[in-house]
Amino acid sequence: xxxxxxxxxxxxxxxxxxxxxxxxxxxxxxxxxxxxxxxxxxxxxxxxxxxxxxxxxxxxxxxxxxxxxxxxxxxxxxxxxxxxxxxxxxxxxxxxxxxxxxxxxxxxxxxxxxxxxxxxxxxxxxxxxxxxxxxxxxxxxxxxxxxxxxxxxxxxxxxxxxxxxxxxxxxxxxxxxxxxxxxxxxxxxxxxxxxxxxxxxxxxxxxxxxxxxxxxxxxxxxxxxxx
Length: 227
Known about the structure:
Layout: H1 9-20, H2 30-37, H3 41-53, E1 57-59, E2 65-67, H4 69-91, H5 100-107, H6 113-122, E3 148-149, E4 157-164, H7 169-178, E5 185-192, E6 197-202, E7 205-209, H8 211-214, E8 217-224
Antiparallel strand pairs: 1-2, 3-8, 4-5, 4-8, 5-6, 6-7
Helix pairs in contact: 1-4, 2-3, 4-5
């Protein structure tokens, strides 16, 4: 997206949030969007009305919103800038991966196309950010992967961590300390669904946690391994 055609920060935030809520595939309620952005439902409704007038979203009878083709492209452009900046902040500037998300949220709205292209070249055209999320290419193409939550892995089965949800700094810090990072191989030693207790093995270490403590770790399943 050319700099001269960039949207305001709030519009970019709304479109990116809609994309994160799968608004390219189905309608998202005003309540879902308001909670995602930590704004009031009336504020979300007002912005969605503006985006609808600009043909970036469509509105359903009850107010739900869905991204149009141009809206999706704009959302992916912002997402691309965000993930490239996260990669730069961690790989080049040495920021902690648990802190890079918040800084990238600010920088993504101000970086120029020229500077972003230079950053991408410096990073040697990465395909994933530090949290394992794929980076959209210049044409807005984003690969889809069949990932599942870590807690859904059956007992005795193995998986590889692929993505980490990057909206909770404290959890990301704990996960990194435990070795639960993209690329790590894990094995579900025990899955006690009734008591909500899971024992996971990673890099020779055993981690015991409830489903809430592991929520946000997405993995790629492997065939069942032996205990």
